Amino acid sequence: MTSEERQVVLDLLDSGEARLLELTAGLSPAQWHFQETPERWSIAGNIEHVVVFENFILGVVRDLLGQAPEPSRAVGVAEKEPLVMAIGHARAQKITARDAMTPARRWTDMAEMLEEFRKTQERVRVFVVEVQGDLRSRFFAHRSLGDLDAYQWLLVVGQHRARHALQIQEVMAHPGYPAG
């Protein structure tokens, strides 16, 4: 990863983390758990999903770096980067989470979940700062975009935070959202 690429990922991670923490600051339990409908995620569900997703992707990228490069899979992957960079702002197209990453009330306490969120953010950030190796020749398939390289997956993590910040804003904008 070039120093420019590393900085792009770090900027996405930092801005996404800041926005999510800003949105979740000072919420009441009623606000934290409010769901627009039973099928839609609460703010707590969104944060839980972000934690689970990021830990999963961090594990995937670490595993990929332990595997042999597969440059033959690179065909067409670079052209997907604009799509990856749009994930955070493309709320019109829904992406269904893998079952293992859907909210399951893994943390019931708000403070405990936010602490886990902060720990996860720090693990991801440290990984991005320290990672060495060829991220561009190791691949993992995205549910809707197909093969992405390991660097693009780090971009996805940053964009994913922005996407869920928007989803949380949608929850907060619902007419039934509690005032406090």
DSSP strand count: 2
* Backbone shape: elongated
The total count of helices amounts to 6
Question: Architecture, CATH level 2?
Answer: Up-down Bundle
Distance between the termini: 45 Å
Write down the CATH class. Mainly Alpha
Find the CATH topology.
Four Helix Bundle (Hemerythrin (Met), subunit A)
Largest beta-sheet details: 2 strands, antiparallel
CATH superfamily: dinb family like domain
Strand % is: under 5%
Q: What is the structural class?
A: mainly alpha
Would you identify the regions where 5 or more consecutive residues have pLDDT less than 50? Answer: none
What distinguishing features does this structure have?
180 residues, Four Helix Bundle (Hemerythrin (Met), subunit A), two-stranded antiparallel ribbon, 2 strands, 4% strand
Question: Would you give an account of this structure?
Answer:
With 180 residues, the chain is mainly alpha-helical. The protein has helices at 3-24, 29-33, 43-65, 81-86, 110-130, 150-173; strands spanning 139-142, 146-149. The chain has a two-stranded antiparallel ribbon. Helix 1 packs antiparallel against helix 5 (110-130) and helix 3 packs parallel to helix 5. The longest helix is centred in the C-terminal third of the chain and has 24 residues, at 150-173. The mean pLDDT is 92.
Task: Please outline the helices and strands.
Elements: H1 3-24, H2 29-33, H3 43-65, H4 81-86, H5 110-130, E1 139-142, E2 146-149, H6 150-173
Antiparallel strand pairs: 1-2
